[in-house]
């Protein structure tokens, strides 16, 4: 415990010395690492910090609002939220190939992000939530699980700076920490539990959990179902047993019955896994009564869903995500 207190005190001191009276800009995704980096920098330099949060409209239900609320109400900083959901829907119109979707979402994301940064970059520092394993991964020729996954699916998580933008220096306040240490620091800084213990969430977001073309309506349908799943898992205290769980919209309609009406509406898939490293994974044995409750609630509470199925495929041969 005192180790983390010491880390925070020392890092805050070093950050203040390094930054002086200059500005710092940080890309905030709402993931664990960038959130903790934001908390540390906020404690060190307050309003000299600007966090840029690009909301591409493909996050889970209410997630963007939660991130905004957290960093505007609990921390001292300039918080810039760029809402570009509609732009992303435009870019994704008619696109069905998973790799094409990833590419478009990644490219557009950084276009929006760097445009926002460019407008504020003068005479400042650039901060990143890089942690120790990220540095090993990029330094030693990609030997760990995440990087190997990237061979199968391109992950667009690397921030590559356009040449026309320059900073005094790059700051990586978490560069020597492992994930569990980052979480411990986050808890100490008062970052909400939901962010500190957030499950991995793919950069392309719900874009790769909607099979086929992504539309605003499909995003809403999926967000509603996924919200029910998360709510029920947390009410049953089952959340922390699993590495990752979420809903997928496979783009398949099925016939159902409601009262004396025939329905023809969306199937939703529940995907839940246990794993240590995400290279291999097993489908989670969620108790039947929790699954029953989730299924009941999704079909009752969410519009345009008449069937819920459970994915019982391990990795390999399945991947965690469906795309
Ligand atoms: P797969 O589906 O490859 O997922 O078994 C392994 C882990 O990686 C996450 N994942 C991604 N993360 N961008 C990301 O940042 C991506 O394009 C991406 N695809 C998969 C996935 O959620 C799981 O944790």
UniProtKB/TrEMBL annotation:
Domain GMPS ATP-PPase: from-to ranges: 2-198
Top-level taxon in the UniProt lineage: Bacteria
This protein's UniProt keywords: ATP-binding, Glutamine amidotransferase, GMP biosynthesis, Ligase, Nucleotide-binding, Purine biosynthesis
Pathway: Purine metabolism; GMP biosynthesis; GMP from XMP (L-Gln route): step 1/1
Keyword Magnesium attached: no
Catalytic activity: XMP + L-glutamine + ATP + H2O = GMP + L-glutamate + AMP + diphosphate + 2 H(+)
GO terms, molecular function: ATP binding; GMP synthase activity
Any one of the GO CC terms: cytosol
Residues at which ATP binds: 29-35
Signal peptide annotation: none
E.C. designation(s): 6.3.5.2
Quaternary context: Homodimer.
Role this protein plays: Catalyzes the synthesis of GMP from XMP.
This protein's name: GMP synthase [glutamine-hydrolyzing]
Natural source organism: Eubacterium coprostanoligenes
Record gene name: guaA
Full protein: residues contained: 192 to 514 of 514
